[in-house]
Every structure is written in C-alpha cells, then in structure tokens.
Amino acid sequence: MNILAFDIGGTFIKYGWIKDNGDIIKASKVKTPRESLESLLDVIEKIYKESEVEVKGLTFSIPGIVDVENGYIFNGGSLQYNNETYFASKVEERIKLPVTIENDARCAALAEIWHGKMKDIDAGIVMVLGTGVGGSLIKDGKLHKGRHLFSGEFSYMLTRDLKTYGLAACFGEQGSIVRLVERIGHAIGKSNIDGVEAFKYISEEDDRVLPIFQSYLKDLALQIYNLQAIYDPTLICIGGGASKQDILIDGIRSALTSLYDSIPVKMTRAKIQRCKYSNDSNLIGAVYNFINLRGIKNGL
C-alpha cells in the first residue's frame, strides 16, 4: 500500500509517496500558499493529480491543535486560515480518497515511536526546532495529548514577562531556528541568509555569531531542564532540519552539562539524542497515523 503524505509548514509543503512500511518512494516540496485555505487545497489537488504512483489515501502533518478522530483543526497555528476547519473532509471532497491529519510535532514523535529512537521508550519527549518549537510527550509508549489536545505546545511556554517582551517572551521565539538564523544574518549584515549558511558561520566560530548561538543554546538548555524536572522522561529527542547539525546537538548537551554542574543539588540529567528521521520525520509519522486510523479500519 502506498500513501501520499504531506508535511505542511509555514514556509514549505514537503510531500512524498511512501510505502506502508515507512520507505519513501520519492519526495519533493513546494512553497506553502499563504492566501487562503482554498489556495492550499488547490496545491494539494494538483500534486495528487500529477502523481504517477497509485495511492490508497492521503495523510497530513499540519500545524495547530488537531482533533485526529474528526479531521478537525481547532487552531491552525502558523496557518490561521485553517482555524475551525474540517480539513480532512475538505480534502476528501476533492480527492475522493481516505484522509487523515495530525499535528506536525506529534507526527515527528510518531515516526520515532514507529521506527526511531522512541521505539520501546515508555516516557519520552520529542522537541522539534523550526519556525517555532513543536513538541510531543510520550507516555506508556504512546502520544500523550492532554485533556484539551494542547500537550506539547512548547512554543507557548512563557519564559519572560509578556507585557515587556511581547511574543519574544514565548519559548517559540527564543527556540526558533528561523529567528536564530535571522539574528545571525543581522550580525553579519546579510538579510537573505539560510540555515546552512548560518551554521557554516557557527562551525567556523565566527566571533560575530558565536555569542548569539551560545545564548540560543542557553535558552534551549534551560527549558529542557525544566521539562526534565516536570516530566522526568527517559529520553529527549531533538528534531527538525537543524538537528542534522552535530554542533547543535553537541551544543545543547554542553549547555545542559554547564547548567547541571551549576546546581548545588544532585539531579537526574536529561539524555539528549537526535531524532532518527530529521526532515522526513513528519512525513513518516503521518503515514503511521494513517495506518493506525484508516489503513486497518478500512482494510486497505
């Protein structure tokens, strides 16, 4: 069985034709339309109709607060035109195939539960660094979504006074890779710098960018410390495209070590690993969600 999976982000839509064992047949990406829900549906329909691979359904990793069972988006996060939308039904009306949706950070966690670092882990946290900071808690080997489907929304954690700092008081701003890249670009006098170039300057230990990166790592380490103290997971996995950078993962570990060493009491220290699937995790997790919700139920 092949499934067409979409990872809809604030900047790009990644999509791929994926087998029901998680193997990716082929994948690509297009820019995310910002105009309206209809423009997004047009892009999805175009990709499906141009496909040369037969699929049994479509599945989506998507920002926001998602009711998986009903295919409903309460709040669209970075895509506000998806607010209060029966998204799965709208896609099904156009494509005439089964459709499932799930929150993007939870898809990353599902990929790790299925074939990745969270397999056989009873208590874990997946933290996805991107435009904001997505997250997911794993309890008894399954996603823990909370009473209001809001569990793991790390971006909304307040770390400073909201009246003084505005949105910069949210962890989603401090932990954002996009904001980190913007700050590095400003420091070196470039407005169109991308993540690859930003990490090149970091790796070269450029004096203009190292203090920015070290401050970023310190902010990340502080909130990881808090999450470890609150939930006490076995493992915390870091995902998102930037997680491929060794200097990021090593930097988080180093910042955490410095933080723990400064505390005068003995504490359980967070164990940090890189997510196995990195950029592909949302696509693979979305497929796992489809299999759980529709593949078995419909006998596909």
Automatic annotation (TrEMBL):
Transmembrane segments: none annotated. Its EC number is 2.7.1.85. It is an enzyme of class 2 (transferase). One of its GO terms (molecular function) is beta-glucoside kinase activity. Pfam families: ROK. The keyword Transmembrane does not apply. The keyword Ligase does not apply. Keywords: Kinase, Transferase. Gene3D superfamilies: 3.30.420.40. Belongs to the ROK (NagC/XylR) family. PANTHER family: ROK (REPRESSOR, ORF, KINASE) FAMILY, SUGAR KINASE. This is Beta-glucoside kinase. It comes from Clostridium paraputrificum. The gene is bglK_5.
